Amino acid sequence: MRKFLFGLAMLAIVAAACAPEDDTSSAPTDGTTATDTPVDAATCAADASLVNDGMLTIGTGNPAFPPWWEGGTTQAHKEWEFNDPYLGEGFEGATVFAVAEQLGFTPEQIEFVPVPFNKSFAPGPKDFDFVLQQISYSDKREQAVDFSDSYYDVNQALVSVKGSDLEGATTLAELQGAKLGAPLGTTSFDYIDQNIQPTEEPAVYNDLNGAVQALKNGQIDGIVVDLPTAFFITAVQIPKGIIVGQFPTVGAQEYFALALEKGSTLTECLDLAIGALKDDGTLASIQQEWLSDNTSAPVIEG
User: Fold this and answer.
1) Domains and CATH numbers, the chain
2) Is the separation of the CB atoms in 135 and 205 below 8 Å?
3) Is 264 within 8 Å of 146 (Cβ atoms)?
4) What is the pLDDT of residues 265-290, one digit of tens each?
5) 159 to each of 42, 68, 110, 208, 221, how far by Cα in Å?
6) Beta bridge partners of 161
7) Which end of the chain is more exposed for a tag (fewer CB within 10 A), N or C?
8) If we measure between CA atoms, which residue out of 224, 227, 231 comes closest to residue 205?
9) Structure confidence by residue, pLDDT tens digits, 290-299
């Protein structure tokens, strides 16, 4: 009997030694628990505070300029000049509807409101959930509003007219004596002031139309704008317009971002939406469709 009990004890010891250890190979190492799942944009947006419950209120400029917005005007939304944003056409039009879908909103749950450019990133409460109208991220602007991740990386460009002294310019030195202009509060004006640094004081205008009219009237020699807008100006607004060239990036890459009220609970959701659209190729396809003809111009070297 004693031998039998001894044998049972030995078997118990062997069994304990051979028993499998707790499986920790699949345990998360990023601080989440095994039951956590990644949050998608729609799940995130479901808990976000919105200006109007159940609706996504989006701001943009009026007029809504090509190639960012396309499709023309409609009787349904006669208040919108140049293009009706509800059509979802143009680069920003297609992008914003793709973002809204990622957030879980249907086209019927989207409302557009006109927002003057400088109010897009002004401090204080907003009557929109987010705004897009070619707003470049900057540290200074981020002090007043939240910004999403980039939905478009951009270079600045110079527009002039045929026969201008600027035609054929390939260096910044050739622009030093020029009278240049840009819309107020834009990174285009900052590029003139900080990087081109012409001897002539640059002209500033309340909006793009003012700068275009000044160039038509011969009051300035050229306008600095983002590259796709330069293609629009020369194709539509100034028949004799030319793109002298695009400027190299100085410092960090300039990019367009969605702007939100400071501390918005929707900011993280927009980053998730943009990230998903980049990962699945949707954003690249939208850019190819609406901006594919607007991506090349000679580079004006420093």
Assistant:
1) 41-153+255-294 (3.40.190.10), 156-246 (3.40.190.10)
2) no
3) yes
4) 999 999 999 999 999 999 999 999 99
5) 41, 18, 35, 12, 9
6) 241
7) N
8) 224
9) 998 766 789 9
